[in-house]
Amino acid sequence: MDDKFRIAIVEDNLALSDIFAKHLIYEGHEVYKAFSGEDLDEYFAKNFAELLILDVNLPGEDGFSIAKRYRDAYPSIYIAMLTIRSGLKDKLSGYEMGADLYLPKPVSAEELSAAVKSIKRRLMESNNQKDIPKLDLVKKKLSYQRIQIQLNSKETILIKSLIEAKDNTLDYWKLLELLGKDDDLDRAYLTLIIHRLNKKLMHLSLIDPAILAVWNTGYQLTQKIQIL
């Protein structure tokens, strides 16, 4: 991420949109104003923003739907939702659709600016570790530099166990146990699982092989991975 923090604001109230944009631009951010989901899509066709500020009540597609689409398309983007709907049900809906922050209207430009600073700080902290792949245990996904790969349950368990093991190394018998196997004849099965997993990891441009066979011992994870 460069010094310019890029923000896309989707707000159909032109006066409010101008106030927010002017305040954020004054603070050194790069701001794009959209008034609908279509405007936002046109912008993202050629550009990107680290933060998406969404009004819920918009003409056409509402903010909840936009949040879900953009969370699916850009997993690393931060999403702040602005709405007069301050009930718990609406907040939960916003978070379920992918929002990171839910700000009830009316919200001042100063309050929004403070929220943006907090989000930027979190992003910069995360960016300091951008060279470390992330393992999401709940979603069973590995992400690295905006690329994601889907894992199955066994692959997730294997990687998690290797991350947590001493020297990132596990014996054959322990890996077989994790797979529900306990016979030396199942070594071929383990080899196949590791081979397929290494092929998946290649899509993230990690060290090849990311999981290395250790002679007469087991396997070692050669790439540092952070568990979320």
Describe the structure.
The chain has eight helices and twelve strands. The chain is an alpha/beta fold. It has two domains: 122 residues, Rossmann fold, CATH 3.40.50.2300; 94 residues, Winged helix-like DNA-binding domain superfamily/Winged helix DNA-binding domain (Arc Repressor Mutant, subunit A). Strands 2-1-3-4-5 form a five-stranded parallel β-sheet, with helices on both faces. It has a four-stranded mixed β-sheet with strand order 8-7-6-12, covered by helices on one side. Helix 1 packs across helix 5.
> Which strand order spans the largest sheet, edge to edge or round the barrel?
2-1-3-4-5
CATH level-two architecture of the largest domain: 3-Layer(aba) Sandwich
Structural class: alpha/beta
**What is the β-strand count?**
12
State the distance separating the first and last CA atoms.
Answer: 21 Å
* Major beta-sheet overview: 5 strands, parallel
Give the secondary structure arrangement, pairings included:
Elements: E1 6-10, H1 14-26, E2 30-34, H2 37-44, E3 51-55, H3 63-73, E4 78-83, H4 88-96, E5 101-104, H5 109-127, E6 134-136, E7 141-144, E8 147-150, H6 153-164, E9 169-171, H7 172-178, H8 187-202, E10 211-214, E11 218-221, E12 226-227
Parallel strand pairs: 1-2, 1-3, 3-4, 4-5, 6-12
Antiparallel strand pairs: 6-7, 7-8, 9-11, 10-11
Helix pairs in contact: 1-5
